[in-house]
Design goal:
43% of the residues lie in helices and 19% in strands. By secondary structure, it is an alpha/beta fold. Strand 1 (48-51) and strand 2 (58-60) form a beta hairpin. The N and C termini lie far apart (67 Å).
């Protein structure tokens, strides 16, 4: 058998092993709630949004304060945001971690009503009706949550609803570590 025939015989097996290895890695070692961001280590992009609770006042990145905070991007039309809401209320009540938010491409009246009915876990919410602030943050969809350090830099990006597991294993340990410094 010539080398060409041997190679034609062996090549599909090598390709199959390579594809199975890639699939194995993605299935068992990927972190679906973690999405790389070019903004990690960078200051929160500047934004100026009308406050949801007081539209004549502004919510800017400067409001995030001088301590570790969460910045949550959400919408009333987002199914996963509804699932996440109970966990955000628990974070506010049980952990006292300040959560700020950006209401993404939503009706402000519907958003205010939603928070009145479900409870408001946020220190402050900005209404991003055009989606400009979300674009600057690199938002793919809602919900997304950023951990912001005391210097106003993005330290971590969580994509999707925050679950108890994600809170216990990733977000809260990171927040405690940042607060210790």
């Amino acid at each position: 058998m010539s080398w060409q025939k041997k190679l034609n015989f062996i090549f599909p097996f090598i390709l199959l092993i390579a594809l199975l290895s890639l699939l194995w890695r993605e299935l068992f070692y990927s972190k679906p709630g973690e999405l790389a961001s070019a903004l990690i280590g960078e200051p929160v992009p500047t934004f100026s949004l009308a406050r949801l609770d007081a539209p004549s006042s502004l919510f800017t990145e400067k409001a995030l304060g001088k301590r570790v905070t969460l910045l949550n991007v959400w919408a009333t039309w987002c199914y996963a945001c509804g699932l996440e809401h109970g966990m955000l209320m628990k974070i506010k009540q049980d952990y006292q971690v300040p959560i700020y938010s950006i209401n993404y491409k939503d009706d402000p009246v519907a958003a205010r009503t939603w928070l009145q009915q479900k409870g408001n876990p946020y220190v402050m919410t900005g209404s991003d009706s055009k989606g400009d602030a979300a674009i600057d943050l690199g938002i793919y969809g809602t919900p997304e949550t950023f951990v912001i350090n005391a210097q106003g830099e993005i330290v971590y990006r969580h994509v999707g609803a925050i679950t108890q597991k994600a809170w216990d294993e990733v977000l809260y340990p990171l927040i405690k570590k940042l607060e210790a410094h």
